[in-house]
Amino acid sequence: xxxxxxxxxxxxxxxxxxxxxxxxxxxxxxxxxxxxxxxxxxxxxxxxxxxxxxxxxxxxxxxxxxxxxxxxxxxxxxxxxxxxxxxxxxxxxxxxxxxxxxxxxxxxxxxxxxxxxxxxxxxxxxxxxxxxxxxxxxxxxxxxxxxxxxxxxxxxxxxxxxxxxxxxxxxxxxxxxxxxxxxxxxxxxxxxxxxxxxxxxxxxxx
Length: 206
Ligand code: MN
Hints:
This protein is mostly helical. Helix 1 (23-45) runs antiparallel to helix 3 (68-89) and helix 4 crosses helix 5 (114-127). It has helices at 23-45, 56-61, 68-89, 101-111, 114-127, 174-177, 181-188, 194-205; strands spanning 132-138, 144-150, 161-167. A three-stranded antiparallel sheet has the order 2-1-3, with helices on both faces. It is globular and about 45 Å long. The structure holds manganese (II) ion.
């Protein structure tokens, strides 16, 4: 899956995550914001045919080694492209209440309990100054870590594999929650697709 990159389908309707994430926000977020990152990511790569076979994840992970003229565009718009693709994928209407299996054990081991994990995750995402993301990532060593990133930076660029992410740009919640980022982050747990997070966890650990 290389250039040109397509805007991924959500896999559910814009109103499917109501009341936790409202339909209008989802529609603008997907059809305007994510579409915009996709278009600009493709535009940056158009003349760089040697890069057309590479995955979006590989380009974002290695943006520092790309030609200087497209580093910023790949970091920001490529980052926006892959970050949102993950975000849509790890949400689902009426998500499972909790992780199971290996992922559940790994969360308990790394953070003490699911509740403690949720607190730390919301703390990191809620505390990200300005626009950015909160992430649960798998490190090189196969362990779990919570990180936040500014703007559209991806943990991939730091050698970490994100398996759960939440967008804390105001465009992700402002219509419904206004400035109440903590309320949006609490509601997020109602739509997390833990099965997808578990799949990503298994894949990241190979
Ligand atoms: Mn966004």
